């Protein structure tokens, strides 16, 4: 069935969550982590690991969200602009992202996790110095009250040697579709009165679960400008809203996870020594065969 209307109401806006105390122990200032590229991020991670013993990041090898964030910062995606044609073999941003991913692993600054609970534990237990991910992680970070005042949120790093890359990206979100079926007008009206216009509801979503909506009017609400004492009084949501305007647009299509099923295997092949160009070429061939 074709959709008659879609509401893009909740976004996962990534930021670079950093442990200020670990950064400072390694001889850096918070501002030193502003406007980084991923190569600089890795070098700082090495220093932090050497001084504090803490890993820079926690990653799940079966979740390539880090690659998605990297390539979208350069206005690139797994698919071409039509949202249908695989764009892996000649994708310069993806090649650069995978090379950086391998450098992270080889630098021994990654705490590998196998699931969500291990990921959250690495944050709350103080095992990692940074968490580059969506704003929805805020409540989980704040769950460890003893770390209040030790965190800050900065813009995401960009891809090095990539002219179009910026310090902003995306990590998914939620959309609601109203289908062309009986009752669609009532459903559309309901969505328009709630997610399409209810500023107070967005304040509640933000306050209770850390969800940032796409309704522009909501950004004028009190919850969006409220300083967060856990993050040293930083107006974190205002910062996320500012970075949102800088995110390059891409056509996600409907094949993101089908392609990532291919890439998860090929990335491991790359880490094990397979040539990067061959990795991307083989991934392209598999994607072309599977995605119609």
**What count of helical segments does DSSP give?**
12
The CATH class of the largest domain, by name, is Alpha Beta
Please, what is the oligomeric state?
A: single chain
Query: What proportion of the residues form beta strands (DSSP E)?
Result: 5-15%
Q: What fold name stands as the CATH topology of the largest domain? A: D-Maltodextrin-Binding Protein, domain 2
Can you describe this structure?
There is one protein chain. With 292 residues, this protein is of the alpha+beta class. The chain has 2 domains: 3-10 and 171-244, no CATH class; 15-164, Periplasmic binding protein-like II (D-Maltodextrin-Binding Protein, domain 2), CATH 3.40.190. It has 12 helices and 8 strands. The chain has helices at residues 20-25, 38-52, 65-72, 92-106, 116-124, 138-142, 184-193, 199-209, 222-225, 236-244, 256-271, 276-290; strands at 3-11, 14-19, 57-59, 110-112, 130-134, 151-154, 173-179, 212-213. The chain is globular and about 55 Å long. The two termini are 18 Å apart.
Kindly summarize this structure in a few lines.
The protein has twelve helices and eight strands. With 292 residues, the chain is an alpha+beta fold.
Topology:
Layout: E1 3-11, E2 14-19, H1 20-25, H2 38-52, E3 57-59, H3 65-72, H4 92-106, E4 110-112, H5 116-124, E5 130-134, H6 138-142, E6 151-154, E7 173-179, H7 184-193, H8 199-209, E8 212-213, H9 222-225, H10 236-244, H11 256-271, H12 276-290
Parallel strand pairs: 3-4
Antiparallel strand pairs: 1-7, 1-8, 2-5, 2-6
Helix pairs in contact: 3-4, 11-12
Q: Key terms for this structure?
A:
single chain, 292 residues, alpha+beta, D-Maltodextrin-Binding Protein, domain 2, three-stranded antiparallel beta sheet, 8 strands, 13% strand
């Amino acid at each position: 069935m074709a959709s008659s209307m879609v509401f893009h109401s909740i976004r996962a806006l990534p930021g670079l969550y950093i442990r200020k105390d670990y950064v400072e122990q390694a001889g850096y200032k918070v501002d030193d982590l502003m406007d980084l590229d991923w190569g600089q991020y890795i070098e700082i991670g090495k220093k932090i690991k050497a001084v504090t013993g803490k890993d820079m990041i926690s990653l799940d090898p079966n979740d390539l969200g880090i690659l998605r964030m990297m390539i979208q910062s350069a206005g690139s995606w797994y698919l071409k602009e039509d949202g249908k044609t695989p764009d892996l073999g000649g994708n310069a941003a993806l090649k650069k992202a995978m090379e950086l991913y391998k450098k992270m692993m080889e630098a021994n600054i990654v705490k590998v996790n196998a699931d969500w609970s291990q990921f959250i534990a690495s944050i709350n237990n103080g095992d990692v110095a940074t968490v580059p991910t969506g704003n929805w992680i805020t409540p989980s970070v704040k769950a460890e009250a003893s770390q209040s005042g030790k965190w800050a949120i900065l813009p995401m790093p960009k891809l090095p040697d990539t002219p179009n890359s910026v310090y902003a990206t995306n990590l998914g979100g939620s959309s609601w579709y109203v289908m062309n079926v009986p009752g669609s007008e009532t459903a559309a009206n309901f969505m328009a009165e709630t997610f399409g216009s209810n500023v107070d509801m967005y304040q509640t979503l933000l306050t209770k679960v850390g969800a940032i909506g796409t309704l522009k009017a909501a950004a004028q609400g009190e919850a969006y400008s409220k300083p967060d004492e856990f993050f040293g009084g930083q107006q974190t949501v205002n910062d996320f809203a500012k970075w949102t305007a800088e995110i390059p647009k891409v056509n996600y299509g409907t094949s993101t996870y089908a392609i990532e099923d291919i890439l998860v295997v090929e990335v491991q092949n790359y880490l094990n020594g397979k040539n990067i160009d061959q990795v991307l070429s083989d991934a392209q061939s598999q994607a072309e065969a599977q995605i119609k």
